[in-house]
Amino acid sequence: MIEINLPVLRERTGSALRGAGDFAMSTVRLPRAFTPVARLIMRDEDVTREELSRELDRLFEALYEHPLSEHSRSLTVYLRRYRLIPNEESTENLIRFMVKQVMLRSPVEIPDAIVDEFWSFFHELISAPELKGLVELNLDITRVVLRTYEPLLVDLANRVKELRRQNQVAMGDMLGKVQVLRSDLVILRRQIRAIRYIKPFLQTDPQDFHGQAQIVAKMVREFGPLFIKMAQVAAANADFLPDEIAKELAVFQEDVEPMTGDEVRQAFIESKGCPPEELYFDFKVDKPLKSGSIGSVYVAKKPVEQDGVEVLVPIIVKVARHNLEREFQMGSLAIELMLVSSQYWAPHSKLLPFLEAMSEQIKEFSRGFERELDFEEEAVVQNRFAERARGSKNWYVPEVYEVTGRILEMEFLDDAMSINRVLAGQTGRGRRRLQRRIAENFLFTVLEHLIVHQEFHGDLHPGNIMASPDGSLYLIDWGNVVDMRGKWVMIRDYLMAVLMGDTGRLADCLITMSTDPEGNRLRRDEIIEALDDTLAKKGVTPLTEEPLRRLYREGYEGLQLRLQTAAHLASNAYQLRLVLQSDYLHLSRSLMAMGGTYANLYRDMSPLTMARDFAVDVSLFPVNMLRQRLGRRRRSGNLLPAR
Predict the structure, then answer these.
(1) Which positions fall inside the Protein kinase domain (predicted)?
(2) What is the pLDDT of residues 199-244, one digit of tens each?
């Protein structure tokens, strides 16, 4: 019978269980050793070689401490003892062979004392306890290899990080585009709802202009910036509209619904990184000075250092509305959808080209408006005109101090008021005299811009013109400027063609200004025929013989009719299936705005007075311009130090 030593068995069993438990726990904890390396690889910042080397060293220290490494030492001793792997004896034989070969091939004789000393050192080394097992040896080999490839691994890891960052940016762009799409749908739904006012408009009594005006105003407000811009253009020349509708649309020149306080704060956070209250004093987000289609204008005080002392300076702050570019693009889309869908209700083949041309013309029209959204470009233009206005007694432009994407800070004007407010304090002859003074300054300013500077304010409706009590002008909102270089010949030919009623020359001008001149030249005869019909309906007859005498007989009314026809044809060229280039289209609407503003300054006065003042002021412009130049030179000369 075999006798079992229970104490020994219990001890060995306990030792085995403890060893198994330690092995299991060490194995469970082992993945934690990889965590620092994984974090290093997964973080957003790039990896350096020093960081990677340090974390790999710590990882291998943890691997060396694992019980498997310790057990591998015992296994290695057992395998070497039974010569299953190289052991001390095989190592010594290999070393003896190498020493013998060295001694045989040495050019000098090696003393025996050196050889004996070497073998004494070798035996001491061999007789030392086993230092590393097979697992540890493989770990050493792996670490050596990794250390060699550390630069490559660092580069590879950083490239992976860069790809991940790019993917994150791409994903962010994708999410941003999805968000844009969502906001576009909100805008588009609102604009399409606004178009529903067309039906009640058509159901009103044709002579009920007051009711029509109320409906149009509601549609414009609900549709948003694009329709507000169109309303401003339409109101700039009231001769094309019934008085009730013209007066209702004129409201959009002076003021529109302001931005909310939250919208203003959000604009500042996006552009400046903080709300306006942290930058200015007395900035009231809920009380703008005025509001327009592009944004709202506020008055505030800003701390500025002057002569070493901080003082509060009043300034004007213009804040752009949110998502304006999308508003304009969605507006064009909504109108295009309306025009396309109209083919369902009126499926006539002759309507299709007209609707397509109208749709393309609206796109060109809104494209010009989108230029007004760049505040930085507006600041450059405004400061350029502010420099030109220095020394002028007729007009002035406030200087821009700072500008960001949606915020524009400019000079505060003490005595600037809207024209209507300036005139409101006058009556009788004093009012008429001030009206004519403002009109004289306005005409002089326009002529100086057109003739001297070859560019002018592209949106001179009353909302963008302010005046002082003495009639001097202040021009604001420089988002739209028309460059006249290269356009004078075309404008001259166009106006002469309309005045003379020459439909051949008129067709050539319109074709040249169109977006597809080559294609439209093939339709020249068709366009001339349509122009003949249009001019005949408007009562504009060709001036083939004695044109000056004919114009004189037609008088002011005839001249006004021909000029209105010129503006009408340019604005409604799509009726001829022509799409005018954006530059010419906005030049036309800018000239209409200027003409309408000038005519409105003579409201309640006879056309003869306006015609007489116009002729006198135009004829005296060279003299007044020379006098102003000499005055500027004299004032600048007075500033020079005496010699």
Answers:
(1) 283-643
(2) 787 777 777 777 878 888 888 888 887 777 777 766 665 555 666 7
Quickly list DSSP for 612-635.
Answer: HHHHHHHHHHHHHHHHHHHHHHHH
Return the amino acid letter for 405.
Answer: G
Task: Please give the backbone phi and psi of residue 617, each rounded to the nearest 5 degrees, phi first.
Answer: -65, -35
SS3 (DSSP) at 510:
helix
Q: Report the SS3 class of residue 110.
A: coil
**Beta pairing, strands 481-483 & 455-457:** antiparallel
Task: Please answer whether residues 297 and 318 qualify as being in contact, where contact means their C-beta atoms are separated by less than 8 angstroms.
Answer: yes
Phi, psi (deg, nearest 5) at residue 141:
-60, -45
Q: Which two three-digit tokens encode residue 466?
A: 């302010």
Cα distance between residue 378 and residue 496, in whole Å = 33
Whole-number percent of the chain with pLDDT over 90 = 9
Instruction: Using alpha carbons, select from 578, 360, 385, 615 the residue that is nearest to residue 482.
Output: 385
C-alpha 141/C-alpha 143 separation (Å) is 5
* Strand order across the beta sheet in which 465-467 lies: 395-396, 473-475, 465-467, 417-418
DSSP for 579-592, written as a single string: -B-HHHHHHHHHHH
Indicate the burial class of 42 (C-beta count within 10 angstroms; 0-12, 13-18, 19 or more).
exposed
d(CA 590, CA 481): 9
Element (H, E) at 297: strand 295-306
Structure tokens of 405?
A: 């994407």
Backbone angles phi, psi at 393, to 5 degrees: -95, -5
Confidence band for 416, pLDDT divided at 50, 70 and 90: confident
DSSP structure class, residue 204: S
Name the helix (H) or strand (E) containing 112. helix 112-126
List the one residue out of 405, 453, 240, 409 whose CA is nearest residue 315: 409
Indicate if the pLDDT at residue 105 is higher than 70: no
462/482 Cα distance (integer angstroms): 18
3-class secondary structure, 468:
coil
Q: Let me know how many helices (H) and strands (E) the chain has, helices first.
A: 24, 11
